[in-house]
Input
Amino acid sequence: DAGVTQSPTHLIKTRGQQVTLRCSPKSGHDTVSWYQQALGQGPQFIFQYYEEEERQRGNFPDRFSGHQFPNYSSELNVNALLLGDSALYLCASSLGITSNQPQHFGDGTRLSIL
Amino acid sequence: TQLLEQSPQFLSIQEGENLTVYCNSSSVFSSLQWYRQEPGEGPVLLVTVVTGGEVKKLKRLTFQFGDARKDSSLHITAAQPGDTGLYLCATSYNFNKFYFGSGTKLNVKP
Output
């Protein structure tokens, strides 16, 4: 039973560039949420995708966008990268969008901006 | 103002000691989740508490949800080096928008 997988594991970009991160949910899950975790902090909710639509969004600018595919996998895109975008980006999957659904996290993509 | 305040921020103890970490808020929650995150990995769900006053046990870990559902605690008995990690509390609001506290970083020395 495959868990949540994310790619790549590490990425180095420079300011102004664009990046795409990928996530495959746990088998049987249909909902994907993305988080940004700065060093020494808890994860911050970016957005959630269900049925290929963005259902919830946290306090992140429009530079952050996403997509969910028919097979439930998801991408996170960040445009015009800033130094402050350096963080661990986590993907979590769950079943449905009702409250209290347990989330299963991947090990994240470490993004470094030079 | 943080929605979820976790304390202490850091904790360094010897193997065998007991400890308690806290997650507090001025808001009432329908549920609260506790996660542990080890370096280089994503958070792993430990428990979800739903009912005010609820106590759940997971081996040497005891989780309590406050009667008013505004706070929660995690107590570890006889800590072991394998308990080392970042302990995070989290809740969902506004129909599945999740919020995490900033975590308690625990180091258990052998």
User: Anything to note?
Assistant: Chain A has a mean pLDDT of 94. Residues 18 and 79 of chain A are 4 Å apart (CA to CA).
